[in-house]
Each structure stands twice: as structure tokens, then as C-alpha cells.
What does this fold into?
Amino acid sequence: MEKEKFKIGLLNGLIVPKVGRSGGLAMLWNGDIKVEVQGYSGNYIDAIVTDPDSGFKWRITGFYGNPVTHCRKDSWNFLRCLNQKYQLPWLCFGDFNEIVSMEEKLGGVQRSQRQMDKFREVIHHCKFKDLGYYGPDFMWSNMQQGENRKYLRLDRALATPDLIDLYKDIKVHHLVESTSDHCVLLISNATVQKYPNSRRFLFEAMWTKREECKDIIQEVWDESQELNSPIGIATRLRCCAENLSRWNKRVFGQIPRQSQKKERSSVLWSVEIRMVAWAARLI
It folds into this structure.
């Protein structure tokens, strides 16, 4: 993460080291804003942000819920404690390791209703509203095949009404990351450029056998296009998809699609996004 700070130009920040082979948190920012970290551990980073133009203060918390089911109540109790600290507009986001209803789960055994209710209760206690999302419905998959595969919406962004009133254009995007079991959570109040009427891009597994595929991806992401903005990321993603599609048509020709009922052998494409403002469970 220390190296990534310099790559993406976010030189200020706090990095909580991982323990063992996984874990670790990071919150990075540029020098244009004032961020004061109020507390942190292996499960959260809490900070107060001051707008440089208006002097307006608001609160941001990156949160990681306990992955052990019977210990998750400790996470909710701690979230209640954080709620009592300050009376500021508040944005709280991350991997909560819990869902609020069975609609946020696909596959696997039935979730305990009491377990989901406890999460809903702490959301209401903190006066949070779910910011919704654009993109895939589920943020996590166990990466198994067939009937053993499970999907859940474990990651989300929550905010208090006063923050939503101030940042009316705030949006949450779920970005597919092909190398992780989680999607990337992108939160922004800037407009992310959309390209309607375009076909959904699929990354073919067979491409990875060709060295040209890696070269195309590397060339796009080494360009000087700005990476610390949603528009910059969207532009890179679109350019990478277009270049790979042209290369595929030239080298492989048109690949026929399988039946919709058959499980996809291709995976939704997502290149490695280097603008990491929040990274949880680093490996």
C-alpha cells in the first residue's frame, strides 16, 4: 500500500497492517482536503473530513464487520459506540459481512432472520439510510461452481440524512473485480460517464493464454489518463474493453454465445483499479 500511494498520487493516509496472510485496512487522500483520523483498528478507520472551500465538516468511517457469526454482535455494539461520538453528517461504508434480507442472498442455506434483524436494528439506531447502488446486485461470491456457489451483498454504503441532503449527487457503483471474491465499492458525487446502447463486455478465459492480452491491458493502464477520479477510471475501463474487443475480433473472430441457462464460462471484465481509497482484507 505504501507503493500504491505514490502510484495513484494519494500521498496522505493511514495504513493498518494486515495480520497473517489476510486483513489490513487503508484510507488514503490527497492534499486538497483536511482529514483527521479519530480512531482505527483492524476493523475500522474513523475520520473527520473538512471541506477546504466551505469549512464544512463531515465524518467518514470505513468498517469491516466481524466475519465470525457469533461475534458480529460485537461489531454492531461498536458501531453504536461510534454513533455516540460525534453529531456530524456521517458516511459509513465497507464490508459489514451481513445482509438485511434474503433478497440480498442467492444460493446456500437460509440466513437466520434474527441475525439479519440485528444488523437492521443498528442501521436504524445510527439513523443510516442505504445509498443504493448501480451495477451487480451481489458484492461477494464464494467462487465455487454449480450448486455450491453463493452470492451475497456484504458490502454497502450507509449515510445519515444530513450528509445525503448536502451531497445530493452521491452515487454508489459496484465494479466487478475479476481477481477478488468481492466487487469494488466506488462512492462518488461526481458524474460517471455512461455509454448507453453498448453491449455488455465479457472477458473470455481463453484470452489469458495469449501474451498480447496482457500487453493490451498494460498499455491502457500505463497511459497518463487521470486515475483519481471516477471519470478517469470509467474512461480507462471503456478504452481497455474496446481495445480487447477489437483484438479479439481480429485474432479469434466472432465467438458464439452459449445459452443463457448455461452457467457463464466467461467472467465480467474488470481490470486492476489502482485508485484504492479504501482497501479491506488485503492479501
Q: What stands out?
A: Confidence is low (pLDDT under 50) at residues 193-198, 255-283. The radius of gyration is 20 Å. Helices lie at 2-8, 72-85, 113-125, 161-166, 211-221, 230-251. The CA atoms of residues 96 and 240 lie 32 Å apart.
